[in-house]
Amino acid sequence: MDFQFANEITKLSIPCPPQDYKPKDMEAFRWVFDAIEDKRNFSPRYFLIPKVDLEKVEKIEDTNKKDLKKCNLFALSFFISEQAAKDRFDYFLQISGKKIYKRFGTQIAKCNIKPQDGVNENPNKFGHFNHHPVKKHEYEARFIVVSKL
User: Residue 68 is part of which domain span?
Assistant: First the structure.
């Protein structure tokens, strides 16, 4: 697959995306900002987190751990259901306050992702999974807003 950010992820010391990530045909949910065309909606966290947080990643001494963290930051965060997305957002809202709306978004959007869109990790206990998209995924045109956060 021709992954988005292939130039960056091929420089890592570990396989990225991880070898256990698989293509899937499934519904996926994501936190988004008001305008679906907003570039933040489908940019990986690597480009969105504060510079100080990236500096913390660079200070990790174990190269494999550092590169695994970077690999995860190049993925898109998805959820397996609208409820899982809402529950996880509510958790972060409780611990961080309303400032998370500026960082994560204000709505939940959904899309049916296909095997040709990229590869996915198995969902965790919160219904979250990382997704490494291919270069031409066109999610801006495919995701639709389903609810407000």
Answer: 6-148
Measured CA to CA, the distance from residue 79 to residue 110 in angstroms comes to 9
Q: What percent of the chain has pLDDT over 90?
A: 91
Tens-digit pLDDT profile for residues 116-127: 999 999 999 999
Exposed e or buried b for every residue in 17-42, given b needs 16+ CB within 10 A? beeebeebeeebbbbbbeebeeeebb
Assigned domain for 1 exists:
no
Q: pTM higher than 0.90, yes or no? A: yes
91 within domain boundaries: yes
Taking the C-alpha atoms of residue 108 and residue 143, their distance in angstroms, rounded to an integer, is 10
Q: Measuring CA to CA, how many Å separate 91 from each of 97, 106, 107?
A: 10, 15, 15
Question: Is residue 117 in some structural domain?
Answer: yes
